[in-house]
Amino acid sequence: MQSLPVARPEHVEYHGCAARREGARSTPVRRQAERVRQDTQVTTARRGAALLRRLPALDWIRIGLLVAGLLAVFTGLLPATEAEDSLRRIAPLLLFIAAVIVLATLTKKAQVFDTIATRLAIVGRGSYVALFLLCVAFASATTIFLNLDTTAVLLTPVFLALAQRAGIAALPLAMTTIWLANTASIVLPVSNLTNLLAAGRVALTAPEFAARMWAPQLAILAATMVFLWVLYWRRGRRGADRYVPAPPVRLEDSRQRTLFRVAAVSCLLFIGAIPFVGEHIGYAAAAAALVLVIAFAVLDRGALRLSLVPWRLLIFVTGLFLVVPTLSIHGLTDVMTAVIGTDPGAEGAFRAAAAGAGLSNLVNNLPAYAAGETAVPPGNHDQLLALLIGTNAGPIITPWASLATLLCLESCRVYGLPISVRRFALHGFGLAVVAVGVGVLALLLTA
């Protein structure tokens, strides 16, 4: 029988020493790796904390609204079926919001808005009357066809930059965008998120909606123009008789010119599709945005960032349409019904408009419309459209009354343009009363 080899003690000692030496060598490496891992975790945590500290108060409100809505669903305050119905209803709206903001932002990067605004000043030839009419037309068209948030986010900075380049008083241009972002958002479903909701409730296509709302829109625009001219644009307010037109925007190379053309064509195709796509307006906006995204991916990839997606607005709208149904179930509908009433005639229309405008300035126009809609009987179409007039043309008194107003005022703050809150509220109150009143009257007269 052959015996197995027995390890000699010196071999065991040798291997043990080798293992200890290897362990001794690896210990500093392991310690260094552990320190690197810990430093990375600390750095990541610090960056996350710094990012959270940099979030504006408005962003915390948006996030808090979404968290509150989710908690309402998880705790059963909002039944799961109600939450599902609400989210299914706003899904096409979220697609539209995301697509149209991306489209508008890239259109601005392609210098389409800057070029148009500068050309308006040149066409005006130093006349403030001509510039006033051109700026009103441009801001109104942007709001009507590309949504009020486009005017707030993109046109306000363009107008403020134009004021600086041409030596024009900035306040008249700023108030033009602030007011028209709200008061020009009546006539098409795409003009305002509340319009999309109302159009679906009353089962109107885009042409039918426009046919019903053109008269209120014209009446409200006329009131807005009078208030703008008297309070901000007339000679005693603007501080000059004439202005010097700014030099035209120069597109330096073929790449910029190509992006400019693609952006302009994409916007025109989207606007042209509005009468034909009906409730699928989100798909039309997404298609136009996709064309422009592809063009930028080829010619200016650095402009394509995740920040193009308006996550703040998407979070706000999603949270809103979870919180408002919860409140409606637990008593808000009864309160709004008592305020608005159920009269299908003129009294009900004016009460709904006044309630919509008042609640918009207390909280915000989106929850004001969502809450008021639940109180209006399904058959009272004129009353619902009057509520819409109140929530669209009325939120111009308090800075938080509409998201568009908040965005415009933030642009003014960044630009360094001070706006008196007291003066803003007093002038806004006067316009809101007149604009909502003449808008509802026009709605009733053309019924």
Describe the protein's architecture and organization:
The protein is mainly alpha-helical. It has one domain. The chain is built from 18 helices and no strands. The longest helix has 46 residues, at 9-54. It is globular and about 80 Å long. 43% of the residues are buried.
Describe the secondary-structure layout.
Layout (H helix, E strand, L loop, with lengths): L8 H46 L2 H19 L4 H30 L2 H13 L3 H19 L1 H19 L3 H14 L9 H10 L3 H28 L1 H4 L15 H24 L3 H19 L11 H30 L5 H17 L2 H11 L5 H13 L9 H13 L5 H25 L2
Essential attributes:
79% helix; 0% strand
Could you write a compact summary of the structure shown?
The chain contains 18 helices and no strands. It is mainly α.
Mean pLDDT: 84
Q: How many distinct folded domains?
A: 1
Strand content: under 5%
Poorly predicted ranges: none
Number of strands: 0
Proportion in helices: over 70%
What does the overall shape look like? globular
Number of distinct helices: 18
**What structural class do you assign from the helix and strand content?**
mainly alpha
Q: Note the gap between the termini.
A: 114 Å
Radius of gyration: 29 Å
The ordered string of helix (H) and strand (E) elements is: HHHHHHHHHHHHHHHHHH
**Main sheet, how many strands, which sense, barrel?**
none
InterPro entries: Arsenical_pump_ArsB, Cit_transptr-like_dom
Pfam family, one: CitMHS
Membrane topology: Multi-pass membrane protein
Protein name: Arsenic transporter
